[in-house]
Design goal:
- The protein is an alpha+beta fold.
- It has a four-stranded mixed sheet, covered by helices on one side.
- The two termini are about 20 Å apart.
- Pfam families: Ribosomal_S30AE.
Amino acid sequence: MNFSIRGQHIEVTDALKDYVDKKLGRLEKYFDAPPTSEGYVTLSVIRGLHTVEVTIPLPGVMLRQKTAVKICIHQLIRSWTSWNVRFANTKLN
């Protein structure tokens, strides 16, 4: 899955890009087929608080989390699995 990474009040270095790719690479095992759309990642620093916003558009649902950097992946996994369980039997267009 490809991600477009941008920074808000922070410079996005190669080390940050590698860190984001490594962390978001853990999400690939939860998809049957890799999504064809591009995900969006926004890194921001406001008053010393480092946050990340991850948006993954999928057919029928848009996964979005905005939290602290370390817990964002866990919350994305939790929201994906809960969505997948609720709508497993529903056919999407």
